[in-house]
Every structure is written in structure tokens, then in C-alpha cells.
């Protein structure tokens, strides 16, 4: 019997403890495992870096929710990304990346991998003709996209991108952090790899760091599995357990995140202090129709272009009360940030530079009335 998403989020990889019957499996907080004679591993467990039952549980549920054949859990989102790149890149490889992605992803390729002979080109991934021109057959190793993108909320046609990438012989990678597997299923649309910062919506409570890769190809899974073991940037048992706990409520949380974000977007779109609201749930968003087909909901992230230049945008970011000024996103609490000097400071002076009038909101699950009032009072101060 195939269960629904919400049921799998709670049960896959989460069988009750056979010894005690505990509904919540224990945290296997151990570095090593006793062997039944030399090489006699119990359940295949030898040492905490190679495998751990708690991490295996997390990887099982991640693969289930994204529809992959295998998943791998890491200590951070960037550790996951780096492991993938180690598995597929070599000197002379070429990466084509969206021109609106998390600044740390661009930094990883441009400042860590480029000195080793990897070429990086950025392109507007929402423009399939531009992607087709950039993805030169025989030269392009990876097409890397975020959709919705960070922080300008561009929407990319995953199915169309996958066709272009595969025609060029490239691996198609989708960062699904903003959407989460509850909203969007990139592998079902043709992507080869899904990347997550599990710190965000999957963990959901701003109390754990982590990253993940989900794949559908067994050969690629084998390569990534070796890198995970050989390099060792694994998620710790407690971090894995906290992420599992967060995943159990992912569906109900993302429903509330999305409802609250939609309400805020509609409440501020005509405000005199607002130049533009970047949210795919608005019919005015250029990617609205595509997002309606590709995504179950429109998500909890939105950005605001503020009139009055950088000083006004900074005042807005520093004037909210319920929204807290902090980096990160996807937790139950609402956060506000100024990307050009926070999450995307590392891409200033590049094609990915974020306008200094843009403020990013991670809309939490608090009372929607409180959130709308908070954002409006902060915008009113700018008039």
C-alpha cells in the first residue's frame, strides 16, 4: 500500500523500537559498535562515520518524501553540496548556475572549486532559451537551479530545464530548500539530484544544522555514499533526530507558512512604501502560472522591494517586532533579513548581487493577524 506524504513523513524509517516498544525510536548516540567477531557487523554497523541507525532513519524518510532511490545526510547544506560536487566534478568541468541562488552556493563553486579548474557560468534559469544557449553539449557538467530562487523568488520550469540539461549531457541539480518536498517534487519532474539545507523547513525549528542530497541513480548514489564515508561531513545523531522530529510536522507547518505568506503578500502589495512584492502566489508574479502547475502551495518565503532606496530598506528590516532580524529561514518563527549585507554579502560585485532595496521575509506560523500588523506598521514608518 502506498501511503500519502503526511503518513510517510511520520512513519517511513521510523518503526517503533523492537526492544521496548517506544513509539519514537531512540537516538543512537554512539561512536562505534560491538562486532560479533572480526568483521561481524551487527546490522551492518561498524563505526559512526560509516553508518548510524538514526542517520539511516533520516535518510530513509528523505528518500521517500522526495521520491528518490537513496538519500544522504550531512552536517550542513554546504557540506551536502560540496559532497555532490566532489562526486561529479574534475578539473575542466563546467557548472551553469542560476543567477539568483543562495550566496554560499555561488561562493562554494567560485572560490573553492574554481581554483581547482572548474568553470562557473551564471544565467537566468527562468529563461529557458538563455539556459539552452549556456548549456553547451559536451562542455557542461552540471546545471544548478533554485526554484523558487533566493531571494528574488524566480520560478524555473524544472521539467524544461531537465530536458535541456540532459540533451547537453549535464547533471540537473535542484535546490528544493525553499519549497520542501511537501510543495515540490523535482525528481518527478526530471531532475537528477535534489539538494536541501535541512536546517530550514525540514528541521523547521531553528535548532539544528544539516544538509541532504536525494538521488535516483544508483551509480551516482554509490559515488556520493563513498564521499560521505571517505570525507566524513556527516550529520550527528542528535542533529539527525531533530530533523526527523521536524519532518513529522512538515505538511501542517508548510500549509500554515504558505497561508500566512500569501496573506502578507496580498496585504502589502499596494502599500505606498512598497515598490514590488516577490511572491509566486500573487497573480502579478511572472512565474505565477508555472508555480501553480509545479508547486502544491506557494511557500512561506517572500521578498519586498522597498521604495526610498537602501536607507528605507534597512529601516524596514530593523523596524519589525514579531519578525526577528536574523539569517536563515524556514523555522516556525518569522524572520526578516537584508540579503545584500547578510545572506548574500559574498556575491556583491557579481551577477548575483541582490538589490539593496530588497528585504527578505521568512514567514512563520504565528497568528497571521499579528504578522500582517507587524509588517504594515514597519512599512508605515517609512512614509
TrEMBL record:
<dbReference type="InterPro" id="IPR015421">
    <property type="entry name" value="PyrdxlP-dep_Trfase_major"/>
</dbReference>
<keyword id="KW-0663">Pyridoxal phosphate</keyword>
<dbReference type="InterPro" id="IPR015422">
    <property type="entry name" value="PyrdxlP-dep_Trfase_small"/>
</dbReference>
<dbReference type="InterPro" id="IPR000277">
    <property type="entry name" value="Cys/Met-Metab_PyrdxlP-dep_enz"/>
</dbReference>
<dbReference type="Pfam" id="PF01053">
    <property type="entry name" value="Cys_Met_Meta_PP"/>
</dbReference>
<comment type="similarity">
    <text>Belongs to the trans-sulfuration enzymes family.</text>
</comment>
<dbReference type="InterPro" id="IPR015424">
    <property type="entry name" value="PyrdxlP-dep_Trfase"/>
</dbReference>
<protein>
    <submittedName>
        <fullName>Cystathionine gamma-synthase</fullName>
    </submittedName>
</protein>
<dbReference type="InterPro" id="IPR054542">
    <property type="entry name" value="Cys_met_metab_PP"/>
</dbReference>
